[in-house]
């Protein structure tokens, strides 16, 4: 009997590619093109059209482009976007969030979903898991290794997981949003945005209703492709959305103050702001000092809130320099650049 059942499963997976999407079985999928950039989406029109062409073979797959449908929502934060999506698509079983430059292998995706039962009762959150080895400013300096989060190529959410996000959305209050996938994973783990003080020195255990990321190598990232990939990076280089610019068209305005002249500026002058780099730049401070290439903007330094200082840097930069791009940096920032 077991052999017969096994044979039947292989038959379904390899000889009936439409079965899982047929009307006889309520397995539905919503693909969300996860991009906040109209430029990026436009550059990948051909890839998105490939998705649409392949989707015509299946009955229960839909495509959602948040840039088109949710223009009023702050779509950079994934949890609020998910709440909006779930309120409109409560009957969907699975939600696949993918970048517009990703290849989707629909038949592999079909077989993958068959292995995960009960999407409306089990909270699945699946993707290629990443983990920080060191403390990171973009991840709020939360202890390294304490959170798995999905690679940006894409991840899969079940209906039950999306429902939990929607139910707890009022508790999503990140201190700031830089890496949406990381902040989403943190929220799913605790079903709230924990305060940074809660995370030190040791992060608390997950919430009893929390959803942790399940790692799957079938969500293939660059350099990790195989025949069973559900999605895979095309290595297209579209993360860089604009062509290289000339360094003559870029001006770097670096914020500092007198008490950090000796401590911080020499480090930058030995690295990315070294004269040999040939960059157009200026250090803006509360005190002019030729030893550190600083000029005064005529405002005293403040411990908190630098809006007036920043506005004055904008004004002086635009009045005194010509450029296509203005880069504002701090005196403790290291920048790696590749400009002509």
Automatic annotation (TrEMBL):
Q: How does it sit in the membrane?
A: Single-pass type II membrane protein
Q: Which Pfam families match?
A: Fringe
Where is it located? Membrane
Kindly indicate where the leader peptide sits in this chain.
1-22
Domain Fringe-like glycosyltransferase stretches: 244-336
Q: Main localisation, per the record?
A: membrane
* This protein's UniProt keywords: Glycosyltransferase, Membrane, Nucleotide-binding, Signal, Signal-anchor, Transferase, Transmembrane, Transmembrane helix
Per its UniProt entry, which superkingdom is the organism in? Eukaryota
Pathway listed = Protein modification; protein glycosylation
User: Which GO terms label this protein's molecular function in UniProt?
Assistant: glycoprotein-N-acetylgalactosamine 3-beta-galactosyltransferase activity; nucleotide binding
Q: Cellular component per GO?
A: membrane
Q: Which residues form a coiled coil?
A: none
Q: What EC class is this?
A: transferase
What does the record give as EC number? 2.4.1.122
User: Which InterPro entries does the record associate with it?
Assistant: C1GALT1/C1GALT1_chp1, Fringe-like_glycosylTrfase
Q: What's the family?
A: Belongs to the glycosyltransferase 31 family. Beta3-Gal-T subfamily.
Task: Specify the protein name.
Answer: N-acetylgalactosaminide beta-1,3-galactosyltransferase
UniProt organism field: Amphimedon queenslandica
């Amino acid at each position: 009997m077991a052999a017969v059942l096994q044979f039947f499963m292989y038959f379904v997976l390899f000889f009936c590619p439409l079965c899982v999407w047929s009307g006889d079985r309520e397995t539905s999928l919503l693909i969300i093109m996860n991009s906040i950039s109209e430029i990026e989406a436009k550059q990948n029109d051909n890839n998105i059209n490939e998705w649409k062409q392949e989707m015509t073979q299946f009955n229960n797959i839909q495509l959602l482009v948040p840039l088109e449908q949710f223009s009023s929502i702050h779509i950079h934060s994934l949890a609020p976007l998910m709440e909006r999506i779930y309120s409109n698509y409560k009957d969907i079983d699975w939600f696949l969030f993918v970048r517009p430059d990703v290849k989707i292998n629909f038949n592999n995706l079909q077989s993958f979903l068959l292995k995960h039962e009960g999407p409306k009762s089990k909270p699945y959150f699946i993707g290629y898991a990443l983990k920080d080895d060191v403390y990171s400013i973009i991840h709020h300096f939360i202890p390294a290794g304490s959170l798995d989060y999905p690679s940006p190529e894409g991840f899969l959410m079940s209906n039950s997981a999306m429902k939990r996000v929607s139910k707890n959305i009022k508790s999503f209050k990140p201190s700031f949003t830089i890496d949406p996938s990381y902040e989403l994973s943190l929220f799913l783990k605790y079903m709230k945005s924990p305060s940074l003080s809660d995370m030190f020195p040791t992060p608390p255990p997950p919430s009893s209703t929390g959803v942790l990321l399940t790692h799957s190598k079938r969500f293939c990232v660059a350099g990790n492709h195989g025949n069973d990939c559900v999605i895979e990076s095309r290595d297209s280089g579209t993360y860089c959305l604009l062509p290289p610019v000339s360094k003559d068209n870029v001006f770097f305005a670096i914020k500092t103050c007198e008490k950090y002249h000796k401590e911080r500026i020499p480090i930058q002058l030995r690295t990315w702001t070294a004269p040999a780099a040939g960059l157009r730049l200026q250090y803006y401070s509360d005190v002019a000092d030729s030893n550190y290439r600083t000029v005064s903007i005529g405002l005293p330094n403040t411990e908190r809130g630098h809006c007036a200082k920043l506005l004055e840097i904008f004004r002086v930069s635009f009045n005194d320099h010509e450029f296509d791009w203005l880069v504002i940096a701090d005196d403790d920032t290291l920048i790696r650049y590749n400009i002509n």
